[in-house]
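Q: A reviewer asked whether we had any structural model of the full assembly, not just the individual parts. We don't, so I'm hoping you can provide one. Inputs are below.
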Amino acid sequence: MTDNLQIKMDDFLPLRDVVFNTLRQAILTGDLKPGERLMEIHLADKLGVSRTPIREAIRKLELEGLVIMIPRRGAEVAQITEKSMNDVLEVRQSLDALCVELACDRITAEELENLKRACVGFELAVKTKDTKKIAQADVALHDIILKATGNDRLINLVNNLAEQMYRYRFEYIKDATQHDMLVEEHRQIYESIVKKDKDAASKAAWTHIENQKKAIIHQIRLDQESK
Amino acid sequence: MTDNLQIKMDDFLPLRDVVFNTLRQAILTGDLKPGERLMEIHLADKLGVSRTPIREAIRKLELEGLVIMIPRRGAEVAQITEKSMNDVLEVRQSLDALCVELACDRITAEELENLKRACVGFELAVKTKDTKKIAQADVALHDIILKATGNDRLINLVNNLAEQMYRYRFEYIKDATQHDMLVEEHRQIYESIVKKDKDAASKAAWTHIENQKKAIIHQIRLDQESK
DNA sequence: TATATATATCGTGTATACAAAAAACACTTA
DNA sequence: TAAGTGTTTTTTGTATACACGATATATATA
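A: Here is a predicted structure for the entire assembly that you could use as a starting point for your response.
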């Protein structure tokens, strides 16, 4: 573990939530590596809190599947395998398709306008070739669709699944050869939603994730080989 | 809260997990009612443990959405609204459709054989008119399909969503007028999987949940009115 | 009687203490 | 040297202690 694990005294959240967010971020960004043990006193010292909030945070990470518990041995960061990532992406594919279908039914005129702007925003971001900007524009666009579904449970699940791929998403977006395809995929999704064509929208969303799936699995295989 | 909240010294699980399971069950079966406060010392006394495992269990319930946290006031059992249940069922509809599609691709000959037996088993259970038996046969059947997907993440999510409707499922199954329809729906799903007809399977699963959705929403409205 | 203010009570949030299990280590013996 | 055994260390699991915020209660004053 690199030592840039530091608590952000963001706000008035209970310590357990601050710790939870900190550890979560550290795992998702790869700062805490798969297989690494999470030792309570160690983390407590590092974050300047007692074991109690650490333990409560770990309980949540456990339920999220980001760490696995070994009895009487504590928590360690869950391994990411090709299989586990494929499982996640299969589910996302299905849920993203559901998202756009629901969006067709429920999106408001104002949200549709925002979505249009977000598409243009993404295109502009791509032109800057700034990976961070592209990623942000991508998130913004997807957030609009998510919100338009009006289904809180769905929003939660999709956000959670999306975060599981955080580590690989960046690699994916960095790959400039994909950029035109991404713009086109977004355009198709947008157009389908405008036309309230659920079938087309769902297919477009499916393809969108399918491409990500291919790219991410490819990346994982590269990672595996380099070991 | 009725007082039949008692710890099951099931096994060698850490207390936090025993408490988690106990509270979870109590919430899902309606023994702990929506809006009811979960007070730590109170629960700790009742279950004969200290506050620590109680708190850790609550953290997990929090992430699962079964309780909501109010800062400096503690946890209370989350309300079930028509909206929240509809949200859950929309997602389940999508994921159950995914389940049978994946099952079409991946089910083994042996599992297919089991599925056939489970269909017959369900038909027999229906004839006994014993609600508990019917529910069990239903779970058994769905478990076979779930397992056949080979997607662990999906299995987790679907099981979790299914449990959220636990309270209403029983009412649904009790309703004898639905029984023939249920048998028929299961038959259609089975047949489609045999034929590896993903489209038909997915539609059948969708309808299967759609009917449950109607029944459950109906039930919730009745509950609301009686208040 | 009604309102405001002081005080007590209750419950969470966090830290610490203690027990027991597991792992690491050293020592003995064949 | 290798295997077995006893001992120490580390780390989790659980209980308890303490502080502080929030609410309720009681008292005083208009």
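A: Points you may want to mention in the reply: DSSP finds ten helices and three strands in chain A. The two ends of chain A are 18 Å apart (CA to CA).
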